[in-house]
């Protein structure tokens, strides 16, 4: 392409906003999210062309995995696995919550998006985070946008604790055994008591979303259809809420509605959840009707006290279980020592171990598990499961497994992905994360100003 440069323009004095629109759109369609957002922040013209690219549905559908970590200063770091580059994005403080207890403000200062947050899960490019009072919020680490979830006090087993001589002073939570299927249960007696900030580390096990909550506003019908699901103590119960609900609803339809370890929504619109229990049983939970419907599609198999179970839909259609077994290393830290992947045979309800991921790599951590094509991202290794931090949901260990490792299904070997110093001491857990294509108008202006001079470094 020949471009005529005016004679009065100095060498190197190029106005990037004058690049042809078709050329910019062609380039934008090939970029991954971190690079795309950086280019959109160059100038107003490039930002407009980014918006057009997204509006026309031209953004690439596949995005490479990033390892998401944060720093005590409130900066989110995305380490792209495909290039090794780091992208640092500042997350500005957000306004305080309007929630109250007995008429008193629940939060007395601005909420830091990640600096004091505990990451409970991730779905569709959003994080589910718990703040310093253990309240849950949805956070998009690329845009800085936040959305509220129902208050913790509406979760069935939770009670708020107040000072005996000052009932207006809230200081913590008690967690009660509300499961009537347990003969020793007594809902009046707390089995766990924690300070407000500590509750999140002991209460929440996993959180997932049925779709992208930013696809429309919470007041629209589709926004209301976004369902948040939380697996929580005691006994790994499951509660859910639609975006905009005032309370959580506890799933207590059957005696076996407990012991959940992982779950995923099969489709953004049909409201069907697949959940795996600690015994290996798989249930489907249909949220499409007026009340949830629970069915078992895989009978209980094998229970282990040192294993975490994951469930994921493979790109080729199979439902897979991942068994991740832990042991304590020399420093008394939990570490994965064994991993196996099984596919569900729906006809026999049996699990069949597999060693071939059909040209994909699997990513497992605090967030929803996902696959990435090795053909699209050749830096990835086929037949491999990429592990990151996760809570230890089995009874023997009460810690977080702080490891970023790769397991090869073919030769049954583990390899560290990064040096320990690069991720082990980050405040919230490090997790595998896939950014999603977003509307440019959603990007917080403080982030946009920073992105104009973003430094990408190795």
Automatic annotation (TrEMBL):
Task: Return the InterPro entries for the record.
Answer: F-box-like_dom_sf (IPR036047), F-box_dom (IPR001810), KIB1-4_b-propeller (IPR005174)
Q: Where is the F-box domain?
A: 16-51
Q: Name all KIB1-4 beta-propeller domain ranges.
A: 107-408
What this protein is called in its record is F-box domain-containing protein
**Organism from which the protein derives:** Oryza barthii
